[in-house]
Amino acid sequence: MTTTLITGGNKGLGYESARQLIAVGHRVWLGCRDKARGERAAEELGALFVQLDITDDSSVLAAVETVGALDVLVNNAGVMDHPWVPTGEVTAELMRSLYETNVFGLVRTTQAFLPVLAKSANPVVVNVGSSLGSIGRVTAPEAPESLVAAMAYGSSKAAINMITVHYAKAYPRMRINCVDPGYTATDLNGHSGYQTAAEGAAIISRMARVGPEGPTGTYRDLHGPLPW
Ligand code: NAP
Q: Ligand 1 test: best mutation among 79, 99, 157, 222, most atoms within 8 Å of CB?
C-alpha cells in the first residue's frame, strides 16, 4: 500500500487531495499544525493524523519519527497575502512571513523526509505551486496571471519551481514535480476561486500517483505543462 503525507491537510486542497488519494487506496497521513482540526479532518476522511508545523524544525523531525515509512510527500501547506498587498507596499517582513512557510517550510519538510522517501520503491514528491509563480504567464499580457500584482506570493511560488528542478536533478530515482491546482475557492483566497477544491486537487492527486517511469522535474496544471 502506498503511504502518503499531505502537509496542510485539514482543509482546502490538501483535504480534497487526501480524499482523492484515499479513494484510490493510499494510506494518507494528514500533516496539520492544529491538533483538534487535524484529528477531526483525519477522522472524517479515514486518514491518519500527524501534528506538523512546517515552519518548526522540531515539529517536522517529530513527524518524520511518527510517519516512519513514506512513499509520497505532498508539499501542500501554503499561505498568501489576501487581499494582495500592492507591490510598492510589500515589506521585507511580509516577504519573510510568506517565504517562511511556502519556501523554507517546504524545503525543511522535503529535506527531513528525503532519507525516508529514498527507502521507497517508488518515491514521489508533489510540490503545490501556482501559476502566479510562472514568469512566462505573469509576463504574457493575454494571461490572467499578468493582471495580478502578487509579488510576495508569486515570487515564493516561483522559488518552488526552481527548488523542484534542483531536487529532481539531485534525486533522479524520485518523481518530483510542481503543480498548479488552478484558481480554487478555499480559505486562502476568501473563497473567490472559480473551481471547487475537488477540481483543484485533481492535478495534485494525479501527480501523487505517477509511477517510476512518470515525469520528474516538471511544472504543470491539469491541462499540461506550464511555462516556467
Ligand atoms: P487553505 O485552504 O488556506 O489551506 C492551507 C493549508 O495549509 C491549511 O491546512 C493550513 O493550516 C496549512 N498551513 C499553513 N501554514 C502551515 C504550517 N506552517 N504548517 C502546516 N500547515 C500549514 O489553502 P489552499 O487553497 O487549500 O492552499 C493549498 C496550497 O495550494 C497552498 O500551497 C496554495 O498556495 C496552493 N494554491 C492554491 C490556489 C487557490 O486558488 N486556492 C491556487 C494555486 C495554488 P491551518 O488550517 O492550520 O491554517
A: 79
